[in-house]
Amino acid sequence: MAEPELPHGIRVGVAGREVVEDEDAAGREQADDLLASLGAAAVGEEQVERRLGRQRLAPVAVDDARGGILREQLGRVARPVLVQLDGDEGDGWVEGGEDPRRADGRARPDLSSPLDPPRSREHLQQPTGLGAARPREAGAGGERQRLLDERRDHIPRLERVLPLPPHWDPERVGEVWRVVYAARFADAERWRAEQDVRPASEDRFRIALVVVDMQNTFCSPGFELFVAGRSGTGALDDSRRLSEFVYRNLDGITQIVPTLDTHQALQIFHRVLLTDAEGRSPEPFTLVTSADVESGRWRIDAAAAAGLGLDPEWAEEHLRYYTRTLEEGGKYNLTIWPFHAMLGGIGHALAAPVEEALFFHSVARRAPLDFQPKGDNPLTEHYSMLGPEVEFDLEGEPLGRRNQPLVERLLQYDAVVIAGEAKSHCVAWTIADLLSDPTVQERGLEEKVYLLEDCTSPVVVPGSVDYTDEADAAFARFAESGAHLVRSETPLAEWPGVVGESLGV
């Protein structure tokens, strides 16, 4: 068969197995143009992204064989790009991300390995599953390392740490103020030009920063669930360090994913939904066990259930089922929290210094924030951004869905950095869910997860609860599973694992 006539700068090797694109001649052409030009060479259905600027390994049909196209954007200096079509479809995995065709809708697996039990605090209940991701297996990253070595040859060293921009005032951390968007836009435009900050769409090594629940309700003193930690200033220090991390690594962070705890008054973890035999509501931080419900110590408030459109008897049965399911799954007991993160309230908003830093990044990098609200179902808690504490009610109806699309998007990045509040609850369960994802475990992707250990603090209420030990034990287990514990002031190029290796260390 005669070879097809191809555009200038593209050559097809023997049997259509090798394609070389010369950027000097062809420039950054769209993937669909490339595939169109190969149509006569029996290239079948398109399974690649439309942009050559992101690395993907995707299967296509070549002469009735399965193949993989590995594409890389190789920097600003024009040089040949080798696109290898591999007939072995079993090797069709991607270093930079997950094949979306392998999306798995299964519920979050039970993480059953126990942590050390609580020491002397009878009011604390230790979740058996928190952080028990499997240890990393040796020898699983040979192909990954080969691709990493190839990519390192083409990625420039990202060693610089940017200065803090002039508008940044760490003394204001802890205050609640309105971000002046017009002023910050002008500041970001000037900073972008002065520091030669490029658009995020041009990143060749792509980093996602997950910012968990950095809201006033958790981060501002005087709000309902200020995360003080044992230091008393935990979330204040976290907000300052996280904001400075964003500013200093402005051109290293590709995408920011903020989660928002989102609640209303009538939810199962708020006082108004439960009552005792005398009509009294439980106090904040009360732990409600299945034994408490069975004995009648705590029950559903019938009027509140009716207000939610629920049959009070069904709601009572759900409470028994819910508390029992939490315990059987190794979760925290149902906790009655102060009213917090109320939708439409000031507490629901991002803490001002964090919001300002994230807005600045969005403008300077031309990268829209990927907000992820969670926690609005009245019949379940929802610590993790990836799924509710209990996924189905007693009749098998969903109480919420695992956010598998978000998992797949995150796995398309070369590294995922996680920070936020609280270390013992929403952050810990989010990390545990991510590390226990079947795709992460099957492909050994734990090592692309980085935890900013100095930008998160545990829940501590003096005289009531202290989850510091539980949070620290969970992070130790995450590290054992292959995730990296890093600090915000360390330059990205000095981080361990794939980030440091790819950025030139």
What does this structure look like?
This protein is of the alpha/beta class. The chain contains 15 helices and 17 strands. The chain has helices at residues 23-26, 31-37, 142-152, 181-194, 216-219, 234-248, 290-295, 302-307, 312-328, 352-365, 404-410, 426-435, 438-442, 468-480, 497-502, and strands at residues 10-12, 18-22, 56-62, 65-71, 80-84, 207-212, 255-261, 274-275, 287-288, 299-300, 334-335, 372-374, 415-420, 449-452, 460-461, 465-466, 484-486. The chain has a 6-stranded parallel beta sheet, sandwiched between helices. The protein has a 3-stranded antiparallel beta sheet with strand order 1-2-5. Strands 3-4 form a two-stranded antiparallel sheet. A hairpin with a 5-residue loop joins strand 1 (10-12) and strand 2 (18-22). It is globular. The relative contact order is 0.15. Residues 1-126 and 131-140 have low confidence and may be disordered.
- Strand order across the biggest sheet? 12-7-6-13-14-17
Main sheet makeup: 6 strands, parallel
Number of helices: 15
Give the number of DSSP strands: 17
Roughly what is the average pLDDT, rounded to an integer? 78
Unreliable spans are 1-126, 131-140
- Give the helix proportion (percent range): 25-40%
Q: Based on CA inertia axes, which overall geometry fits? A: globular
Distance between the termini: 48 Å
Strand content range: 5-15%
Integer-rounded radius of gyration: 25 Å
Structural class: alpha/beta
Tag the structure with descriptive keywords.
505 residues, alpha/beta, six-stranded parallel β-sheet, globular
